[in-house]
Amino acid sequence: MLRFFGTRLAQLALVVLAVTLLFYWMLNLLPGNPCVAAFGGAATEEQIAECERDRNLDDPVIVQWAKWGGDVLTGDFGKSYLTGRSFGEALNTALPRTLLLLAYSQVLALGAAIPLGLWTGYKQNSVGDKIASGGAFALLSVPVFVLGLVLILVFAVRLDWFDLSGYQPISEGLGAHFRVMFLPSVTLAAGLLPIYLRLLRTDVIGTLQEDFVGTARAKGLPVRHVLIRHVLRPSSFTLLTIFGIQAAQAVNGAIVVEFLFDLDGVGSLLVSWVAAREFLLVQTLVALIAAVFVTVTTMVDLLYSVLDPRIRRK
Amino acid sequence: MTDVATTAVTGSQPDVAPRQRRHNVALWVSVGWLVLVIASAVLAPWLGFIDDPHKPLSGPPEEGPSWSNWFGTDQLGRDMFARSVWGGRLSLSIAGPAVGIGIVVGGLLGVVAGYFGRWVDLGVSSVVNVALALPALVFALFIVTMLGQSYINVTIAVTILTIPAIARIARAQALRFAAREFVTVADMMGARWPRLLFREVMPNVVPALASIAFLAMGIVIIAEGSLSFIGVSVGSPSITWGNILSSGKGRLEDAPHIALITGGVMFCTLMALNFVGDEMLRRLDVREARI
Questions:
Q1: In chain B, is it the N or the C terminus that has fewer CB atoms within a 10 Å radius of its CB?
Q2: Going by C-beta distance under 8 Å and a sequence separation of 6 or more, which residues neighbour residue B281?
């Protein structure tokens, strides 16, 4: 067990190092001096020299990367040479928003997918199942930005139920917070829902054939009890796996949704830095996001093996 | 027992035919729509009824659909029908080559990994798994920023995204077929590995890859759409579905047709691609092929 964890963690560390090095190396492919670009072309000799010292530009790429890694580990993420604003400062305001958005959308998607998946699997091929499955299929074909625009048009512009005034923290009151966060979370959840639903439905149909389900029904347990206690349980592994895979892809949606709803989260930060050609910051942020997601995926894998001992023996 | 068996057999028989027919109708509608979209995108410069998409004041600005402007007009009075067609032209001309290259490179990588196994498989699989764990849009954003916002660079970025996903599916398929009897028999008859790989395994993986191509096409169109929606695809004055939607975002109150119609065209195209892909997978009985 310990050995299994050890190997997985060592693999994880290697992958994180490789991924950050890859992004670091790609920046060096860029023609010209990144420090000149960092000031937007209007810098004095001293400023450029200072920036070059900061970034260790005279060293080979691998040494630059190692020093950058050391800085990041000690909490020095660099700063924008254009505005003087530090990376940490920007991330401090942006990160909670993105995390909340991701959390709400996962809760909404799972909250809808679990009952719907159990029900459509149980009532396989009924009219309701066909409508739900068809709807899920259609939803898979709607790009996030199209769905978001339609929701804005209907619920914010026409019905005026929700605000589009940018982010409101929870400290401004739960009402204000959810009036701003509800539509973005629904938009993001709508992309996840059909994936969870389809998977869960297939799983439920399979589990319902098992003997233990027949036994439970024969004992006279109510259908609802059997579905929740006996059928959902083995499917939780499937949900967990797909959750790990989708976590990384949810960030794609988050970037678009934050842009669409002016939320100024991590995704918007990335887009605005790209637009301002702040390559040094973009690089650090992308490397961090990549590292976080490789870690999340591995953690889900590990959790999976803790919950289901069969995996470890393979 | 016999009771259950007979109802299962007779009960399911009449059910299959209408379902199949419904699927056939939906399949032909999807194929028809795709042919229409692709033909208009390819022939756009030569079709007389498609206006110049850059010409201002083809009609009064921000007017809804009418006889002279089928899809209405945008802020500058440019014809939205022409812009939708030309937007599709660019989106498809990025997605086509991206998926083509993705299928060839990803397919080869996956089949080789699945067929040879051991360290080849280990190498390919670990790179593929890491690539799939990275948020795709962040990666594409990074590449396009580094290389610059041009047609070629956007195509490169989305192509790189398709390769690992396709490689994973090709690998699963190759694994499945490499263990089949006809491959073992050919092996025992003394066939060498290129023959086994290209004549025995590969022809069985190709149909799956062909159906995956439709699904991958949809994903690439969404990826490119997201990039251009946030302003990081091919720069203006190029027209893409994503940047039409982006400009329609600010005009939802007064001219919702700009976003709605373009979004609708995109939705129909994606739905048709997904339906054709799913249906091909179902008929070829391909498992483990979700992207």
A1: N
A2: B208, B211, B212, B289
Q: What is the pLDDT of residue A33?
A: 66
State whether the Cα torsion A3-A8-A12-A14 is positive or negative. positive
Tell me the nearest-neighbour CA distance from A282 into chain B, angstroms.
8
- Determine whether A183 is exposed, middle or buried from the number of CB atoms within 10 Å of its CB (0-12, 13-18, 19+): buried
Does this model's pTM top 0.80?
yes
Residue A79 bridge partners (DSSP): A86
Q: A310 falls in which pLDDT band (50, 70, 90)? A: low
- pLDDT single digits (tens) A113-169: 888 888 888 888 788 888 888 888 888 888 888 888 888 888 877 787 777 767 777
Q: Write the residue in B134, B263, B273 that is nearest to A146 by C-beta.
A: B263
Residue entry with tokens 């690439």: B220
pLDDT: is A95 or B63 the higher one?
A95
Radius of gyration of chain A from its Cα atoms, rounded to whole angstroms: 24
Minimal CA–CA distance to A135: which of A117, A156, A161?
A: A117
Tokens 């934050």 sit at which residue?
A258
Å between B191 CA and nearest CA of chain A: 32
In the DSSP assignment, the letter for residue B235 is P
In sequence order, which residues have a C-beta less than 8 Å from that of residue A118 and are 6 or more positions away?
A: A200, A204, A227, A228, A231, A232
Question: Most B CBs within 10 Å: which of A11, A19, A28, A141, as the mutation test of the B interface?
Answer: A141
Whole-Å CA distances, B91 to A67, A161, B228: 41, 34, 10
